[in-house]
Amino acid sequence: MAVTKLWSVTERLGQVIDYATNPEKTSANIKREFSPEQYQALADVIAYAKDEEKTEREFYVEGINCNVAIAREQFITVKEQYQKTEGIQAYHGYLSFKETDISPEMAQKIGMEFANEVWGKRFQVVVTTHLNTKHLHCHFVINSISFVDGKHLWGEEKAWFKFRKVADRICEKYGLYYDPNPNRSKQSDYLTMKEKAGMPTRYSVAKEAIDYAIDHSKTLKEFQFALKEMGYAYNLSPSRKYWTVIPKGYDKPIRLKNLGADYTNDRIVERIKENRDRWAEIEPFQRATYKPRQYRMQTRGQKLKKKGGLYGLYLYYCYRLGYLPKYKKQNNARLHYLLKDDLMKLDKITDEVRLLGRENISTDEQLFSYKTSLEEQMKNLIAGRTHLRKKRRTNIDDGQLQAAKDEIASINGELKKLRREVKLCEDIAERSKVMEENLEHIETEEQKQQRKEKSRYEQRW
User: Fold this and answer.
1) Is 135 in contact with 96 (CB distance < 8 Å)?
2) According to the UniProt record, where is the region Disordered (predicted)?
3) Structure confidence by residue, pLDDT tens digits, 211-226
4) What pTM value is reported for the model?
């Protein structure tokens, strides 16, 4: 059994889920004094959980401390009774079964038993079983306010990751699969597939940086200095069970022990100590890059750098990444540490540089002007879509209705493209500043290294 997270419902689900089209369950024929828009999120999520196409005409739909047919009204009654109608309206979660041969009756029974144990003493819950996927799964819609004392759902009552023990116990009771020792630190399938395909991930880049830092360090202090110089934040406290690092541009730390057996706390210390026996062979942290030449021809990078503007900045950055020109031989091992993380963002960088070239954008003013024009187009399209949606509710024939739906679908497609363009503009505005900082830092280091090598060369002669 796989248990997912519990999430809150505060507004229309809109783009998150398609709510059901059952007019008997979602229409506003309710004899209460509140606007149709009020509690719409509550209606949407309950309608989604009770979707007839997924529950075989609501056969697998039950309520705990409420009547499913009028669950929305009963939820609202509790909220109004305790004068807590604002904020989170409900919580929505689900329980998915690994087995493919489990019966819907059994799935619904387990879902009811689970919900009763976790929430049944204090909250109203709608429990349904969806049959529309390969693996059956139960949906839960829980009122955010307790009918017992009017308190909000909080603490361990919504700590979904703690419910695993309850789910495991019920699975064991009915002879279903459960993992008694789940590995919660393993990488996602997406990252594993990228690594197998030879593509960089934040884990592989971090591993490479740590290997480089260890190979050029004889003490733990030197190791920390190397990590800091490469833009990594770290927590290598001796009292900490698992050492962590945070790559530049990320917020979530990486536990080093998750990178492999050679990256545990003790093993890293051992690898650094092993370097002391061969300290004479260890190269300096910054490799020599200066080579004296009598004549220096202008390189492609220098030409791109002179182009200037946002477009020129992106072209020069791609050149430093080793992906411009196409025939340039890539050597990621010698790539500056500040640039390695951007190898994972090449698709986004490519889209951004194409936009800049296509629209001939060179300055921040041109970028924001283009973004404003996109937002204006979106505003007009949304207004047209709203008009069409209102038109669908009028008495029109089937042909006109289908034409309106087709036009709405076309508008949605255009809006999707425009939103993507707006997001690219926002990313360019943010990324360009980071690029400038990285290039400035790299060039400063290169100039220092060149002066140092030049001094050594002059001393020899």
Assistant:
1) yes
2) 436-461
3) 988 888 888 998 999 8
4) 0.42
